[in-house]
Amino acid sequence: MESADLVVINTCAIREGAEQKVIGRQGHLAKLKDANPGLRIVLTGCSVREPDRAGLRRRYPAVDVFLRPDEEPELVDRLGLASAQGAIGTVAPVGPVGATTTVGRAVVGVADGLSGTRARAVGEGTVARGSTISAWLPIIYGCDKTCTYCIVPFSRGPERSRPFDDIVAEARSLAAAGYREVTLLGQNVNSYGHDLAPEPRFGHVDAARWAGRRLDLHGRPDLAELIRAVDGLRTTDGRPAISRLRFVTSHPWDLSDRLIAALAECPSVCEHLHLPVQSGHDGVLRRMGRQYTVEHYRERLDRIREAVPGIAVSTDIIVGFCGETEEQFEATLGLLEAIRYDQVFAAAYSPRPGTPATHLADDVPPDVKRRRLNELLAVQERIGLTRNEAWLDREVEVLVDTVVPPRSHDHGGPAAGATAGQGAGEGSVRLSGRARTNKLVHLSGEPGLVGRLVTVRIEHAGPYALRGALVGA
Ligand code: 5AD
Ligand code: SF4
After folding, report:
1. How would residue 79 be classed by pLDDT, with cut points 50, 70 and 90?
2. Cα dist from 209 to 215, 253, 332, whole Å
3. Which of 238, 243, 322, 385 has the fewest C-beta atoms under 10 angstroms from its C-beta?
4. b/e map 163-194, b = 16+ CB within 10 Å
5. What is the average pLDDT value for the chain, to the nearest integer?
6. 14 alpha carbon to ligand 2 midpoint, in Å?
7. In ligand 1, which atom is closest to the CA atom of 346?
8. Minimum-distance ligand to the CA of 255?
9. Which has more confidence, 127 or 162?
10. What is the distance in A from the centroid of ligand 1 to the CA of 274?
């Protein structure tokens, strides 16, 4: 960073720690600017959420330009990259602030240009892709849910679905570019389409299909319809043009039977579902504003496991939410034992400014939060190991995506520690990839296998990953 003329910081606001990290760097960034007066610093992402910039300037004094997530094209303009307008000035007033809306009683800026920005970038072929193997495909921006701890409805505004045909067109172009895996992306992908205009071609999508809220969905596309359309993109020999289709995140409240049927029937949809539960106690769920009960959650999961046998399930948990008693925390541990997740992402609750939960007392002391988090992770480590051991001696399809750099304690060349089997010989390196269940799988083989779907026989299982030998590519 010392020699940079431009620093662009992309922020995440979901937990306090993520935001504090950037705030804590302001002094260092200011020093860099002292040393290099030409340096310009741009801040974007979810931390840029207030319609007025005064608060942002106070918290991020070293930053020259604040851009909402949909304002990236403006970044290009302001830097003079596209239109040669010259360098940006210090503390430049940001261009027109986008529309605002109210979420609860708060006024928030809305990144309302996202769909258009995306369509333009796809058309121009300028979407930044981190990989040539797997791609994210945003389908809905924002969130209309009411989770009391969550800043997303404030940072990302209300739900806006991308037009159905734009998404299918982007999926088609990804398939043509050789992508093997696509993940449909949104804060709550299950809401997809409720805000789009009804059309005769979606006349069969009926209104009463949500487990939770009853929106008038008649004639509007939904996630199930979208999944079927992307799965329906086929090669000339009839195989799905995109081998693996995933989607995140699903809110349990409106996970429909139509979606479950699509998961079961579409061959490209991977056997993995991320279904955040947050807590195993109804009282906590109520305070969190999650809109479902543990019973409803378990009913949905039973239906899914029935429809897609062997599906891997992961979840998010918050420990130490306002008023969480020891007994309520233990109910969460009990739920983990009962459901037996493949993977759990857990965090201690941290209050986020402006969210409804800031009106509740954050009364679980930090050391109790930490202890509960460690206890929960230990329980899950044991469960994860058992779940993974069930894959021993079985063959799984792996999409190889990484050459793992040799570890410093490896001796005897890059193939050291390689498991037996085809591909573990001369020229073989350590590789990793994902099974359809999203499990991380380590193997040995030629670097040329990156980007390929291979078959691996599982020989070792740990709590967080599997290891095996190549049996075919
Ligand atoms: N504190 C802790 N965890 C949070 N999450 C969201 N907001 C908070 C918060 N204030 C977690 C939830 C969510 C995941 C993306 O982040 O578990 O599912
Ligand atoms: Fe946040 Fe809840 Fe929306 Fe997820 S569903 S983004 S937790 S408000």
Report:
1. low
2. 9, 12, 29
3. 238
4. ebebbbebbeebbeeebbbbbbbbbbbbbbbb
5. 86
6. 10
7. 17
8. 2
9. 162
10. 14
